[in-house]
């Protein structure tokens, strides 16, 4: 693979990865969503618990003797609501905190600044239309669409903007309240946050007010329908998700963490998608999204990126190379938990013109299979988030709240992956001699 | 020399923890005074800023973070390098430990 063009291509991708991953907001967004996972898992747990225990149609509560369990459903409901339907609130706080940290600001107060800045852009009332057509205004409430993932993009924007302003104001000595030297330092620093906070919150509230005054719509609703919804539509369609996967796989092939590359786009959109599904499931409504975070893990990355569970099985079946078998043995247990770095760097798959081909195309094919299996109704849509290291079959079962169709589809995908990898592992058998010579 | 702390960094700290066990075995064999531990990339810089870290090794999959790590930890004087991908893939504790020791003694 010594050709100049390939070398150049790898170099460009490496440079690109370095540039993108050093962008402040990319780092902050990635850290935010990594920190958010416990919130989403808590919501997932409550929802599953509810469906297995408290639900009168699906849970233990359907048994007459245990029907009292249904009385406890409000516990799960409240957890589900304040995790899933409050996601934007947590994102805004964390993102404000992360951006501030990268701007070398100390403490957690910037998280509060970000949150206030976002909240004041939204209305503090809801217009409610009753069954007979009368419109009632309910005041002193924050509508659900401003706390759940519909507000996500405006929230992220508000967090970044407010913290940048906050950082800038903090550097302006003119805006600091001067204290006489006799005042202790802790007292004077507590005043230093005062002016910037007042200014920023006022600016953001005015900004929100102006948008509503001019357009008649709130900023959150505008950003949702103009930016967030179209982006979600793009990534949650089959071509969009396959493209995202293709990009991730190409970076893995040059030895870089592909998921790290697509995470800033993938995480907000696919996590929002699964959270919307969880909310619908808990409410007993139609599940909206086929493509979501567990879809990615269940149908495209079993065994790790590239669906390498298929590669492991293929090696055990037909590889005649000792080095391959040894690496596969080493990789087997981690592979069950979807960790495949030993395969990527040990076989290696990285910069390997033979194995790179099935590594790239396998998730695209299995993802397509998963998508159609769900579309035709054979497999259910995922309803709860499952962490990525959860093994195959278990993740399909849990994420769909126990759908056998999804498990069967995943097993079928794994078999397809084995079949895709098989011929390439056989070809690799033939190259063994020359490579060992080359290594010496 | 005081006790050595070797920090390995990868994306989630998962695959690197396999390497940590291989290196620990090697440290025991060589009867060295050294700690090895893995951190996810999201926590690594903050940790290195506050705790004692003698050598920092990045997994090959996050080598694009090298420049940022070097920049952020400039004042700390911690040697930073990327683990050779082949040694990483084969979980070769011996060679990676050697790399860490070489780096620390430079």
Automatic annotation (TrEMBL), chain A:
Keyword Transmembrane found: yes
Localization (cell): Cell membrane
Chief localization: membrane
CC per GO annotation: plasma membrane
Biological process annotations from GO: phosphoenolpyruvate-dependent sugar phosphotransferase system
Annotated ranges, domain PTS EIIC type-3: 9-424
Membrane topology recorded in Swiss-Prot or TrEMBL: Multi-pass membrane protein
Gene Ontology molecular function, alphabetical: protein-N(PI)-phosphohistidine-sugar phosphotransferase activity
Domain of life of the organism encoding this protein: Bacteria
Membrane-crossing segments per the record: 33-54, 74-95, 107-126, 151-169, 190-214, 234-256, 268-284, 296-319, 354-374, 394-422
Keywords of the record: Cell membrane, Membrane, Sugar transport, Transmembrane, Transmembrane helix, Transport
Signal peptide: none
Function according to Swiss-Prot or TrEMBL: The phosphoenolpyruvate-dependent sugar phosphotransferase system (PTS), a major carbohydrate active -transport system, catalyzes the phosphorylation of incoming sugar substrates concomitant with their translocation across the cell membrane.
Protein name as catalogued: Permease IIC component
TrEMBL record, chain B:
Keyword Kinase included in the entry's annotation: yes
This protein's UniProt keywords: Kinase, Phosphoprotein, Phosphotransferase system, Sugar transport, Transferase, Transport
Post-translational modification Phosphocysteine, affected residues: 10
SUPFAM superfamilies, alphabetized: PTS system IIB component-like (SSF52794)
Biological processes, Gene Ontology terms: phosphoenolpyruvate-dependent sugar phosphotransferase system
CDD domains for this protein: PTS_IIB_chitobiose_lichenan
InterPro entries hit by this protein: PTS_EIIB-like_sf (IPR036095), PTS_EIIB_2/3 (IPR003501), PTS_EIIB_3 (IPR013012), PTS_sugar-specific_EIIB (IPR051819)
Listed GO MF terms: kinase activity; protein-N(PI)-phosphohistidine-sugar phosphotransferase activity
PTS EIIB type-3 domain segment(s): 3-106
Protein name: PTS system cellobiose-specific IIB component
Species lineage: Bacteria, Bacillati, Bacillota, Bacilli, Lactobacillales
